[in-house]
Q: What sequence folds into this?
């Protein structure tokens, strides 16, 4: 391959033609290339990082009548506690719930924990959107059509109160990982309506009651609890 | 005794084909790869099942470490220079062209604007050293503390800090350069306590920026 048959052009004609083989040794070249390949493999990222889209509600005060009111029965509140603990309650928090230890239930992240409840509450939207995802996978519909259809499904079911609205409230003791895990569950269970909401004093009190951990309380609440 | 004739064999292996293959591989790696950006803080992102890959251009990434230090990267160098000038202007600091050029070379920036001039005068190694030494102090990371401003009409207080100035100007510059909307990506360590994240989100929301990309790593099927 890398041989060149060099012919002596010779002038005299009578001279014996010297046949020479020019063979180029490619071994060093291969060595160098291998080194370069190794370098590029080590120094680069082939995989682009994944991202998760997050939309936060606007901070502007909604005008009268434009507020989104969540129906009592649709609401599910997730409380992200310390040490990767997860708590939730269904419905709205009312005064009579404060002393009810069963109102706030403890759960965990992942398939065996909160996902069962979410899937159960969201099963209609889940199955419909899962169908759509299947169609998208088989290229029966385009990405745009998928987005459009899934939004309309969510809207329709929301009107019929068949999908839950999830409020994610993180305590000061929870970590970023907990937040992402909670958002992840929303993605897995195809929940359309969820928001990250600031924790309220009532939620803090519930957590304190449940876990007996005074860290959940605010300064004022702690002082009050100590006074009593 | 007959002499055993040893046949002399040429053991020359032709490496040309091998060379061809390696060159092809090399070309492939050079074309497809993007270099790892050097980041001042090591961040382990949490994993999620989300499969959207991050857009390559037009984004501002906020690096957040567990202690609440914030660094930023803007992937457009023209934007970077202009943003620096404007933020400097807000705080009464003007930067020379040399300083702006040096700023554009930074992979990620994160020092208070008052220290920026001194920071840019350092060499690359000295900058690394500076960041390492000041990691525990207020002299590294973009400050999120500032003076409070009372809004007369709503009665709410908002904080005026350097972080907001950076974001606001970067977004404005991006629009003026006709690059479209600047995407805000948050790359935080998975052990970051929630209050740190909340500060970042609250600041962004006060700027009416309500859409973010949370950078995560892909969760494999086994640990789902």
A:
């Amino acid at each position: 391959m890398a041989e060149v048959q060099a012919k002596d052009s010779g002038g005299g004609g009578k001279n014996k033609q010297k046949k020479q083989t020019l063979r180029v040794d490619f071994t060093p070249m291969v060595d160098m290339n291998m080194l370069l390949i190794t370098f590029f493999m080590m120094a680069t990222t082939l995989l682009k990082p994944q991202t998760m889209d997050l939309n936060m509600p606007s901070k502007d005060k909604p005008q009268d009548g434009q507020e989104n009111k969540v129906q009592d029965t649709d609401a599910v509140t997730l409380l992200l506690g310390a040490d990767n603990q997860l708590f939730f309650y269904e419905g709205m928090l009312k005064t009579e719930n404060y002393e009810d230890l069963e109102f706030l239930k403890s759960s965990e992240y992942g398939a065996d924990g909160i996902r069962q409840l979410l899937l159960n509450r969201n099963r209609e939207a889940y199955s419909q959107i899962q169908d759509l995802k299947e169609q998208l996978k088989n290229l029966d519909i385009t990405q745009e059509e998928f987005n459009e259809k899934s939004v309309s499904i969510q809207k329709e079911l929301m009107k019929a109160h068949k999908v839950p609205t999830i409020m994610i409230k993180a305590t000061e003791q929870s970590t970023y990982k907990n937040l992402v895990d909670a958002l992840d569950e929303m993605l897995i269970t195809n929940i359309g309506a969820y928001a990250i909401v600031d924790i309220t004093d009532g939620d803090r009190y519930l957590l304190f009651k449940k876990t007996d951990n005074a860290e959940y309380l605010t300064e004022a609440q702690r002082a009050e609890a100590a006074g009593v | 005794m007959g002499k055993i004739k040893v046949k002399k064999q040429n053991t020359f292996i032709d490496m040309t084909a091998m060379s061809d293959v390696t060159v092809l591989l090399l070309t492939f790696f050079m074309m497809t790869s993007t270099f790892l950006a050097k980041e001042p803080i090591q961040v382990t992102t949490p994993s999620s099942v989300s499969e959207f890959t991050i857009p390559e251009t037009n984004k501002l990434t906020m690096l957040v470490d567990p202690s609440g230090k914030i660094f930023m990267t803007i992937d457009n160098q023209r934007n970077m220079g202009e943003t620096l000038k404007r933020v400097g202007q807000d705080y009464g600091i003007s930067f020379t062209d040399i300083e702006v050029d040096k700023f554009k070379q930074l992979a990620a920036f994160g020092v208070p604007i008052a220290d920026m001039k001194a920071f840019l005068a350092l060499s690359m190694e000295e900058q690394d050293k500076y960041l390492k030494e000041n990691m525990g102090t207020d002299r590294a990371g973009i400050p999120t503390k500032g003076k409070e401003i009372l809004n007369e009409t709503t009665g709410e207080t908002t904080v005026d800090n350097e972080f907001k100035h950076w974001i606001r100007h970067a977004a404005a510059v991006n629009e003026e350069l006709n690059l479209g909307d600047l995407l805000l990506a948050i790359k935080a360590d998975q052990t970051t306590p929630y209050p740190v994240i909340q500060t970042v989100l609250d600041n962004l929301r006060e700027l009416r920026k309500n859409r973010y990309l949370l950078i995560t790593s892909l969760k494999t099927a086994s640990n789902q």
The beta strands of chain B are 34-35, 47-48, 52-53, 59-64, 70-74, 147-150, 157-160, 183-188, 211-218. Chain B is about 40% helix and 15% strand. The mean pLDDT of chain B is 83. The two ends of chain B are 77 Å apart (CA to CA).
